[in-house]
Amino acid sequence: MINYSLKCSKDHRFDSWFKSADAYDKLRLAGMVSCAVCGDTNVDKAVMAPSVRPARSTASGADNPTGSPPDRPLSAPASPAEQALAELRKHVEQNSDYVGGRFASEARAMHEGSAPERAIYGEARPDEARALIEDGVPVAPLPFNIGRKTN
To answer: What is the 3-state secondary structure (H, E, C) of 95-112?
Structure first.
């Protein structure tokens, strides 16, 4: 396993683990590596310092006198922006129906009255989203990837 510091074209920085350097390259070329903050798939390796392990603690525990764990779990959001995105995603997932690739047709059917109105989320191609907006269907992009596991 290898951990890379990454950054997207919007200069968001995040870390992600990969099976190998080749695995990272293949996933990136396939558009499968996306920004953990905004979902941008234009991601590159960021400049990073090598990971150097500190010297082992002395018997007196001088390196970590309390022996306490880090301030936050590694899976916890690192910034208020990441926390807000995590909360928004949780709210959307708990209060909406996931319709996947049928988003455009479901949204249009609700707008035309042929399907009952409800909160939905899913994926739409750019041309489908543009057509919905042009036809006055109220839609909005979500600031995170859905439908597939992210980094």
So the answer is: HCEEEECCHHHHHHHHHH
| Distance from chain centroid for Cα 139 | 20
pLDDT in tens, 37-87: 888 889 998 876 666 667 665 544 444 455 556 566 666 777 888 888 888
User: Coil, strand or helix: which one is 33?
Assistant: coil
| Domain spans of the chain, in order of start | 2-45, 80-134
pTM over 0.70: no
Q: Give Cβ neighbours of residue 97 (< 8 Å, ≥ 6 apart).
A: 118, 119, 120, 121
- The angle, 0 to 180 degrees and rounded to 10, between the axes of the packed helices 126-134 and 103-112 is 10
Q: What is the Cα–Cα distance from 103 to 109, expressed in whole angstroms?
A: 10
* Number of Cβ within a 10 Å radius of residue 128: 17
Each residue's pLDDT tens digit, 122-143: 999 999 999 999 999 999 988 8
* 37 CB-side CA count, 13 A: 17
Instruction: Give the C-alpha separation, 87 to 80, whole Å.
Output: 10
Residues 6+ apart with CB under 8 A from 83: 77
